[in-house]
Amino acid sequence: MSFPNNSYKRVDNRESPVKYESTLKISEMSTYTIKRYNDDNDKIEKDCLIFTGNEGLEGFVHVYQRFNNACSVFNIEDVFEKIELFEKILEDDALLYWNTQIRHNMNEHTSEEMFQSAIKRLKIAFGGGEKARDHIIEYMKSDSCKKPKRSTVRDHSRRMQALMKLANEAEGTESLLNEAKFNKILLNSFPNEWKTAFIIGGGNISNMSTEDLNNHFSEVKIEYDNREAKNKSQWSGRGRNAGRGYGRGRQYNNQYYGGRGFRSPGRGRGYGYGRGGPGRGRGRGGRGLSPEMPCPLHPFSNHQWKNCFENQRGERFRPYQRNNQRQSNGNVNYNQDENRYNNCYNDHRNGRENREQDESQNAGEENPWNGAFRR
């Protein structure tokens, strides 16, 4: 009887049977409980994982490790008792392959070596083929196993060590990975900047253990993270070189408006003219701006805040496109909106040119935006 080719994984598929992002969930695998009684008549239980074939090489390694642990706990040394127990943790395709391709070769003369040979055949069938180790090692050296940016060095190293153990458990022509070979692969999986700095600094992995590499590159990651955070802060609202909204805001009718991020009440983004010079950043909003107040962006114009084309909540708001050109908001006629847009700037330009005249004419009147936020 021939075993159908589509019911188990093909051998030598030139792909790694395991991936960096593991999809195996051991907690969701079925179990078989072995029960025994010791000399004191106390019941001892041990859970073994069940292998169906869909779990691949990584699942098979976990299943066989649990099986060996159970045999050790219960002192199971007889090969026929092992075979009987092992058959109870096989299901679906794995059990079908075992019964049709392996079991018929066993008889009363079966030895421990024959049993281990049968285990090896099962592992080859469902664990990536006869060159699975070669494929895993090649995969570990590829860009697919580069350290993820958000992953810690130790988490990344632990996953790479797990792949190394799986490679050594698999069949193949490549030699087994030792610590020296693994360290070279681990070093190659780090960002190029880190590797370059390590080599220029005189680093030599031949004199370092895996733990030494983890400690060194953990410190490197902290340094790079701090540097990146510092660079980002210089462009954020709370950075040294960026403003923090409109400072404290301006008083109008005995209340402060604007605050940090004048565009909307509560938290919001705002163009900063506060500490550190102009800049765009996040900050706490003030009470928001009254629509009837003079425009804070064009303090020398004659229009109100509700009519400004930069007011996100106003009907005349014109957002920027990618080419920094403003577009119509679609709520009003384009030509009419274009006229409003030009009028807003004309008001600001004319008001600024006639600033001294306007200030002299309005002497004695309260103007909360007088002389503030000049562009």
Structural summary, described in words:
This protein has a two-stranded antiparallel ribbon. α3 crosses α4 (112-126). It is built from eleven helices and six strands. The chain is mainly α and 375 residues long. The radius of gyration is 36 Å and the shape is elongated. The model is unreliable at 1-13, 236-287, 328-337 and 364-375 (pLDDT under 50). The relative contact order is 0.07.
Tally of DSSP β-strands? 6
User: Strand order, biggest sheet?
Assistant: 1-2
Rg, rounded, reads: 36 Å
Indicate the overall shape: elongated
Number of continuous helical runs: 11
Percent range of helical residues: 25-40%
Strands, helices and their partners?
Blueprint: E1 31-37, E2 43-49, H1 56-73, H2 79-87, H3 92-102, H4 112-126, H5 132-140, H6 153-169, H7 179-188, H8 192-200, H9 210-233, E3 250-252, E4 255-257, E5 267-272, E6 279-284, H10 334-353, H11 355-361
Helix pairs in contact: 3-4, 5-6
Brief descriptors of the model:
375 residues, 6 strands, disordered C terminus, elongated, two-stranded antiparallel sheet, mainly alpha
In short:
With 375 residues, the chain is mainly alpha-helical. It contains 11 helices and 6 strands. The strands form 3 sheets. Strands 1-2 form a two-stranded antiparallel ribbon.
